[in-house]
Structure formats: C-alpha cells, structure tokens
Amino acid sequence: MWRDLLPLGRSASSGGYFRQPWTAPEREARAWFVEQAEARGLAVERDGLGNLVAWWGTGRTDAVLTGSHLDSVLDGGAYDGPLGVVSALAAVDVLRGRGFEPRRPVAVGAFVEEEGSRFGLACLGSRLLTGATSWETARVLRDREGLALEDALADEGLDGSRGTWLDGVATFVELHVEQGRDLVDRDEAVGVASAIWPHGRYRFDFAGEANHAGTTRMEDRRDPMLSYAMTALAANKQARVSGQRATFGRVDVRPNGTNAVPSHVTAWLDARAESSTALEQLLADVERQAQERAGRDGTSLTVTAESVSPEVAFDPALAARIAEPHRWPVIPTMAGHDAGVLSAAGVPTAMLFVRNPTGVSHSPDEHAETADCLAGVTALADTLALLSGGEQ
C-alpha cells in the first residue's frame, strides 16, 4: 500500500508532496483509498465534502473509528496523515489474519483538508462534519487563486453536504507519525497522546506607502516590510523566552517589485502554547511590539484571528486503558489533528504516535523507520481489538 501511495502528488524536484484538497493528486489519493477499502470488502461512504469512511462489520452504531487524512502541506512529507490511513487498513488485515471478528463495527476514515493548506482553515473536513464550523462560514473561504470553497467542491461534483455517519461513532483512534522527538528521547517506538496544545493562525496586515526604491530617501519611507521584519524577530524572541512556539511561514508582499518600496505586507503567524492563557499572552506581546514598530515606521497594522483552537485534553481513562497494558508513554503534542476536533465534539478520542527519528515534519525530510511503522500497525490492531470487543 505504501509503495502504491508514495508517488501520488510527489514533486520531482524537492521530493516533497503537494496533495492539496480537491486537486488531482489528492483526488488520486482518495481514489486509492476507495480501491483499497473495496478490495477488503469494506463498504465505503462519501459525504458532500469528500470525507470518506469504510465500514468493517455489521451495523453503523457504537462503532470504533480509526484513520487520518491524505492531504499535505505545501511541499510536505509522506507520513503526516497517510501513515494513519495506511496503518488503519493494515490493522484490519492484521486482525483478520488473527481470525478476529469485531462485536462493534470498525470504520476506517480519511478526512479532507486537515492541513488547511488550500483554504486556510485546518481540519476543515472534520470541523464541518462535527458542526464545529458551519457551512455558511466555510463556503465562502477562498484559496490563493480566489476560488471559493463552494465552487471548488462543485468542480469535484460535491455539494458540501455533511455526512451523518459520525453519529454512529462511539470512539475514535488516530495513528500519526510523531511531529517531534519525544519518543526518540524515550527510546520508544510507540506512544499515546495526552493532549494537544492550543494553537492559532493569525493574519497580520501591514499597510504603508508604495514608492521608488532608488529615489525615496530612507527617512521618507513608510515601509511595511520593516514593520513585518521586526515583528517576525519579535515573535521568535517572545516564543523562545516563554517556551512556546511562534512562526511566520507565509508572506504576501504588494506590489512585490524589486525596485519598489512595498505598499502592503500580509503575513500569517502560527502560534502555539502550553495553555490558552499562554497563547493569548504570546499573541498580545507580539502584537504590542508590532504596533509600536508600525508607529515608528509610519505604517499601520491590523491583526485578524483566522482560526483558534483551544487545548484538547484527550480522555485520560481511555489513554490509560490503551497505554498501560503495553507500558507505552503518554505524551502531549503541539500539532493539531482531526482527533482534536472529534474530541472537542464529545467523541471519546485517543491518538497513537509512531517514532520519528529526526523529529522533522511538514518537510520532504519527514520520515519513520519501517520497523517502527510496523510496530504502529500492531499497536493500532491491538487497540482496535481492545475497543471493538471482538473475539478471536
């Protein structure tokens, strides 16, 4: 399965992945999922967003759901998301090989637009599925080319309608490559999640005055690039001194000319912290310094919160039930996941992590060793057997 999925959406130049939602590479990945599920005799459902679920067992209630996502960040790695989908299908194979028959139905899911790489709102598929985000809010979101989500779905033959299959799910378990080095430091191949740090995406709009790069004296400029540059440095410093995370990873400059002072700079801040209070303080500190610098530069600044996710504490009893028989460590994660959305919606949720030898993620260098991936499959199979209450 991994060999078949590996080339889909892969860049020949960087080796990274461009599987943005509702584009040809991601469409191929979803077709691959349907093919794999049907080859196993699993009944596949698709909603009007493109979310997919494949059912093993009879009935559609009190189910155990597993899976992840198939989309990627821009120039992303192979493992973030797809590892959880491939491992879920492989875990079904393992359980069948053991002669296991689930008493509760087991479902394998693939959510769309988890990364938010096209329409800017992370976990969009699961947010819409759970009702955390309304269709009226989502339908007008636009990608970098200005195409509205509603129109992008229509181009795929989708109408944006929300599936109802989640109503029958009693538990969700998501397997994911670890996006850090905690398991490496512990010398463990598999871990269980305790919580997801609160995080947010914020748009910083700096407005100045376009002018000639050669004829305009430095003291006469109203240059928003200077305001942005100091803000990026301030975000780095504030995050370092407080032990949190702050990243400006996307910038749009207008008019974007080599010989022109910019008139406008838009930059997006990704901020994460150990608590909601710490996140609010981090943002306040960065915005304060940015406003002070804008005042000195003769520019203006508007900050808009595009998405903010509170801390998610996974069901501690469920995490302990999964981890204790195997003595797997229970660790937090700083990355957002569909599991966090389902947990916030009231679905008892757990996560399994597979060791990442370098900790690198959201990059073509993202990696996990085959032996650890296989250990993750076995761990997920054991967990599904535990939760689905079947016999072998």
Please describe what this structure looks like.
This protein has 392 residues and is an alpha/beta fold. It has two domains: 2-197 and 311-388, Zn peptidases (Aminopeptidase), CATH 3.40.630.10; 199-309, Alpha-Beta Plaits, CATH 3.30.70. 34% of the residues lie in helices and 23% in strands. It is built from twelve helices and 15 strands. The two termini are 25 Å apart.
Q: What does the secondary structure layout of this molecule look like, with pairings?
A:
Blueprint: H1 2-5, H2 24-39, E1 43-46, E2 52-56, E3 63-69, H3 82-97, E4 106-111, H4 124-130, H5 135-138, H6 149-155, E5 169-177, H7 182-186, E6 190-196, E7 199-207, E8 211-212, H8 224-242, E9 245-254, E10 260-261, E11 264-272, H9 276-297, E12 300-309, E13 312-313, H10 316-323, E14 330-333, H11 338-344, E15 349-354, H12 370-388
Parallel strand pairs: 3-4, 3-5, 5-15, 6-14
Antiparallel strand pairs: 1-2, 2-4, 6-13, 6-15, 7-11, 7-12, 8-10, 9-11
Helix pairs in contact: 3-12, 8-9
Organism: Nocardioides iriomotensis
Protein name: Allantoate amidohydrolase
Binding site for Zn(2+) 1: 69, 80, 176
